[in-house]
Amino acid sequence: MAMIEFAHVGKRYGGRFEALADLNFNVERGEMVFLTGHSGAGKSSVLRLLMALERPSRGRIAVAGHDITNLHVSHIPFYRRQIGVVYQNHQLLFDRSVFDNVALPLVIQGATPQDARRRVHAALDKIGLLHRERALPIELSGGEQQRVGIARAVVTKPAMLLADEPTGNLDPQLSADIMRLFEDFNRIGTTVLLASHDLALIARLRHRVLKLRDGRLIGDEEAA
Ligand SMILES: Nc1ncnc2c1ncn2[C@@H]1O[C@H](COP(=O)(O)OP(=O)(O)OP(=O)(O)O)[C@@H](O)[C@H]1O
C-alpha cells in the first residue's frame, strides 16, 4: 500500500485559477522524494493538502490507505499525528528552551513527563544537540535552529516527514548536513517528501524527483 496517493488532484484557491491540475502520483512507504519546480509551481500546495490544512477541489488523496480528501475536522488532529513537518523558518517558540520546543508535540499528545523527557532526549541526541537542551533558540545558529525544528518534527516518530524548503536559509555546507539528517530518518523507515528549488542539492543526493510546473506534474525521475 502506498504511503501517499494523489489521484486526479486539482486545487483552486477562491475559485480562481488552478494552483494544481490533475496531479497523479504515489509515494511508497519508506521512499525519499523531492518535490521541485519554480516559485508558484504548487509545491507548498501539495504539502498543505497532505497536512490537511487545505482540501483538494478535485480528485482524491489517500495517506497510508486512508482517504483524507474529505477528512472530518474532528479527525484532523489524529491524522496529523502520523506526520512530522519541517518548515523553512523552523517556527520555533523563541521564549521556550530547545527542550520545551521539541517536547511540544508530545505535550499536546498527552505524553507523561517521563516519557516526554526520554523521547526528547533521544530526538536531540539524533540531531547532535543534546548538550543544548536548555538553550533558547536565539542562542543557536541558523543551522542548529533548523535541526531543532527537525527534532520537533520527528519526536513523535511519524510515519511521514514533510519539509517545505528546509534548507532555504542555509549555506551549502549546512544544507548538506540537514539533508543527511533527513536521509538518516529515511533509512530507518520514515517516508520523506521534501519541497525544494535547490536543483544543485537535489542533483547531488540522488533521490526520486517529482517536478511541477504551473500546478502540473511534468517529471517523475527515479533516483539515478
Ligand atoms: N491561500 C492561497 N490563496 C490564493 N492563492 C494561493 C494560495 N496559496 C497559494 N496560492 C497560489 O497558488 C499557486 C501555487 O502556490 P504554492 O505556494 O503551492 O507554490 P510553490 O511552488 O510552493 O511556490 P513557492 O516556492 O514560491 O512557495 C501560486 O500561484 C500561489 O500564488
Automatic annotation (TrEMBL):
InterPro entries: AAA+_ATPase, ABC_transporter-like_ATP-bd, ABC_transporter-like_CS, ABC_transpr_LolD-like, Cell_div_FtsE, P-loop_NTPase. Its main location: membrane. It is a peripheral membrane protein. One of its GO terms (cellular component) is plasma membrane. One of its GO terms (molecular function) is ATP hydrolysis activity. GO terms for biological process: cell division. Residues 4-223 form the ABC transporter domain. SMART domains: AAA. It is found in: Cell inner membrane; Cell membrane. Keywords: ATP-binding, Cell cycle, Cell division, Cell membrane, Membrane, Nucleotide-binding. Belongs to the ABC transporter superfamily. Homodimer. Forms a membrane-associated complex with FtsX. This is Cell division ATP-binding protein FtsE. It comes from Kushneria indalinina DSM 14324. The lineage of its organism: Bacteria, Pseudomonadati, Pseudomonadota, Gammaproteobacteria, Oceanospirillales. The gene is ftsE.
